[in-house]
Amino acid sequence: MADHAEANTANVPPETQAASIASPVNLILLSLFVLIAYLRLRPRPPPTLPKGPAPTVFQTFTPPTLLPFNGKGNTPVYLAVRGQVFDVTPGKNFYGPSGPYANFAGRDASRGLACGSFDEDMLTKNLEGPLDTLEDLGEEELDTLKGWEERFQEKYLVVGELVSASSEKAKKAGL
């Protein structure tokens, strides 16, 4: 009987014989399927977010302690308006070195902004003295200053307050 089965398969043309599952083409396709399945289903590391800027702590500044924050040497750019200290580093091209408002960096810019003047004579000369009270400014200049202050509040972070070097707050903060 075994001879009869061999005789039947020997007489059958190759096109009608069942193809083996273990053919080289099937093995290659199976390998590709397994590889693609592994690549799609393998565990992935969790996505990492880029690190944000370091947190800013609200500080008390005096004119001498605010002065180093002028953008030179890769430092942040801070300026004060009516006693509020703003981090204007995102606008470094305006307020940093060689910017049009560079002389306001690290200083109280209130008088200069109110008067629309960017000259250095608008800045307080005596950094150890009292802060500029702006008492001699007119209503129009005060309105202009208020507009600048609102613009800074909308656009930049408040990082501190500016107090006189001889004030109790400065002494309390160890400045």
Descriptive report:
- With 175 residues, this protein is α+β, with helices and mostly antiparallel strands.
- Helices cover 37% and strands 10% of the residues.
- The protein has seven helices and four strands.
- The chain has helices at 2-11, 24-41, 63-66, 92-95, 110-115, 139-155, 168-172, and strands spanning 59-61, 78-81, 84-87, 157-162.
- A four-stranded mixed beta sheet has the order 1-4-3-2.
- A hairpin with a 2-residue loop joins strand 2 (78-81) and strand 3 (84-87).
- The longest helix has 18 residues, at 24-41.
- It is rod-shaped and about 115 Å long.
- 20% of the residues are buried.
- The mean pLDDT is 86.
Order of helices and strands: HHEHEEHHHEH
Largest sheet: 4 strands, mixed
Number of strands: 4
Work out the helicity level. Answer: 25-40%
- The outline comes out as rod-shaped
Structural class: alpha+beta
The low-confidence runs, each spanning 5 or more residues with pLDDT under 50, are none
Describe the structure concisely for a colleague.
This protein is of the alpha+beta class. It is built from 7 helices and 4 strands.
Helix and strand topology:
Layout: H1 2-11, H2 24-41, E1 59-61, H3 63-66, E2 78-81, E3 84-87, H4 92-95, H5 110-115, H6 139-155, E4 157-162, H7 168-172
Parallel strand pairs: 1-4
Antiparallel strand pairs: 2-3, 3-4
Keywords:
4-stranded mixed β-sheet; rod-shaped; alpha+beta; 7 helices; 175 residues
